[in-house]
Write a structure and sequence with these properties.
Layout (H helix, E strand, L loop, with lengths): L45 E5 L5 E4 L2 E3 L4 E2 L2 E6 L3 E6 L2 E6 L2
Antiparallel strand pairs: 1-2, 2-3, 4-5, 5-6, 6-7
Length: about 100
């Protein structure tokens, strides 16, 4: 066999049944292009809270009250130091920093 004719099937480790001819075989192994897709989490920043009998908050520079939309989130609650948003079906609490 000519060294250029070595295939992946016979490029396995030498065995007693196949004598080594000293040729080095290059085996091409297909690689998968793996792309990890991460859903970008929306970034919400609480800029301020006005806590009165009808509280409001400033989220990403937008004045909101309970029930308002900001981006793809709904304002569920406004507390003295936090705002609760529903984002993609999940409740998330964002603290005023």
């Amino acid at each position: 066999m000519h060294p250029a004719e070595v295939t992946a099937a016979n490029a396995q480790a030498p065995s007693a049944a196949r004598p080594s001819d000293g040729a080095v075989a290059a085996v091409s192994v297909p690689t998968a292009n793996i792309v990890l897709e991460r859903k970008a989490q929306p970034d919400f920043r609480i800029n301020g809270i006005i806590y009165t009998s009808h509280p409001s908050a400033i989220v990403n520079g937008q004045m909101v009250v309970v029930g308002d939309q900001v981006g793809n989130a709904t304002v569920l609650a406004i507390a003295q130091t936090s705002v609760t948003l529903q984002v993609n079906g999940q409740r998330k609490i964002y603290e005023l920093k």
